[in-house]
Amino acid sequence: MTTIYGVYRSRASRNYWLARELGIDVAEVPVIQAYRLPDATAPDAPLNTASPAFLKVTPTGAIPAMEDDGFVLTESLAINLYLAKKHGGSLAPKDAQEDALMTQWALYGVSSIEAPALAILYAHAEKREATPAGKVEVAEAAEKLRRPLKVLDAHLQGASHLVGGRFTVADINMAECLRYAQSHPTLVGEFPALEGWLKTAQARPAFQDMWAKRAVEPA
């Protein structure tokens, strides 16, 4: 049995999306981020990333975490690559070259896209994007993103998906890294091929089902 620890309003969302695409049942254990709680150590605090019970699962104290028949793995993109390869099918790499490309795009997403995309999301969520400092922060983050987004856009002009001409775990991982940048009103729209690919990915029933579960969680 595979267990995913983490709430939908976290990077666990990408694991829950993939599980739906694979059609596999996973046990979902909600673990909230400790920083979202007034007192994560209170006796009545929900299971969170500072809870001793969760730290027994992973001493990193970070979500998501996965336990699969006693095997524990952290880092959301690594979890997705593992699950896709374990369960096989069209979402998994078909050979060593596709495996390498899927790893390449996951590393590119986390190293070049996720951090500035998150800066845009946080500025929006915390309502700082309209302040002078917030405008500067968002503008700087958007500028950092333009080069990697241009790379993705050029790649997608000649391909409908990132790897193998079909929807794979690589698309899920990259779409989830990029999703945070959608808080910017115009940035993604500067790259038509990328925007079209992202809209297609997010229109998939598995994403929509995951997103509906996320929407009902407390913000």
Can you tell me about this structure?
It is a single chain. With 219 residues, the chain is an alpha+beta fold. Helices cover 54% and strands 7% of the residues. It is built from eight helices and four strands. The chain has a four-stranded mixed β-sheet, with helices on one face. A hairpin with a 2-residue loop joins strand 3 and strand 4 (71-74). Helix 1 runs parallel beside helix 3 (76-87), helix 4 packs antiparallel against helix 5 (132-157) and helix 5 packs across helix 7. The protein starts with a strand and ends with a helix. The relative contact order is 0.14. The mean pLDDT is 97.
Structural class of the helix and strand makeup? alpha+beta
Report the total helices: 8
First-to-last CA distance: 29 Å
**Helix fraction by DSSP (H/I, runs of at least 4):** 40-55%
Largest sheet: 4 strands, mixed
CA radius of gyration is: 18 Å
Mean pLDDT: 97
Would you list the SSEs in sequence order as H and E? EHEHEEHHHHHH
pLDDT < 50 runs, ≥5 residues: none
Order of strands, main sheet, comes to 2-1-3-4
Total count of strands? 4
Overall spatial form: globular
Percent strand: 5-15%
Task: Name the features.
alpha+beta, 219 residues, four-stranded mixed sheet, 4 strands
Topology:
Blueprint: E1 2-5, H1 12-22, E2 26-29, H2 52-57, E3 65-68, E4 71-74, H3 76-87, H4 96-125, H5 132-157, H6 169-179, H7 192-202, H8 205-215
Parallel strand pairs: 1-2
Antiparallel strand pairs: 1-3, 3-4
Helix pairs in contact: 1-3, 1-6, 1-8, 4-5, 4-6, 5-7
